[in-house]
Fold this sequence. Notes:
Elements: E1 9-13, H1 22-33, E2 41-44, E3 60-62, H2 80-85, E4 90-93, H3 102-115, E5 118-123, H4 126-133, E6 139-142, H5 154-157, H6 159-169, E7 174-178, H7 184-192, E8 197-200, H8 202-205, H9 210-218
Parallel strand pairs: 1-2, 1-8, 2-3, 4-5, 5-6, 6-7, 7-8
The structure holds SN-glycerol-3-phosphate (G3P).
Amino acid sequence: MKYCYMEPDILINFKHYENAVGYNVEKLLQDFESLDSQNGVYYCLSPLDLRLQREFPDLKIYGQHVDSNGFGAFTGSISMESMKGIGINGSLLNHSERRIPSVEINKTVKRSLDMDFKIVLCVENLDEVKKYSVLEPEYIAYEPPELIGGDISVSSAKPDIIEKAAKICDGKTKLLVGAGVKNRHDVETSMDLGAAGVLIASGIIRNAKPINMLVSLMGNR
Ligand code: G3P
């Protein structure tokens, strides 16, 4: 297996874990702020907490979902405009726990390209990689739903799919992989298979020392 020397992109999905929303998230972000380098690290927060971008200007905060509409009569919306207004320039879309119809995915990704807003488009299988990579979002994040939140990492359970997905993305859109990622070995294996990095939640957020886990996943940089 070849070893990949590039730095991985690490996107942390805070989901709606109790220690990662509301007042609790501020403590986590203070810890993460102490990293020597924030290169390639993105923090995907609950919509309630996105305004913390103002308090943590050195952190790259992303959303967990974004809508295709702009400003207007759209109750409950999270628009790219409102996120950009508070300094946020990207978001997850179509996460396994927040799936949206294909027509919405198309509309949102197309609009994001005009808005210079980065979409991390989550998909569950190779058919979806094929279907959506042509839209050329910033990232495609492949996460097999059955492995999410578990202890078996996508890189050990589905290495062949990661390799195929990387070929389909072909450098036009960056590939992330996620589900069950727990250590640096999982990150390096994913990158050897052609991923640009990982999308991770419980491995960091549910760890007793989230900052230590993030440092060890980042490797030497
Ligand atoms: O978005 C990341 C997520 O779905 C993977 O979750 O807990 O397996 O790292 P986890």
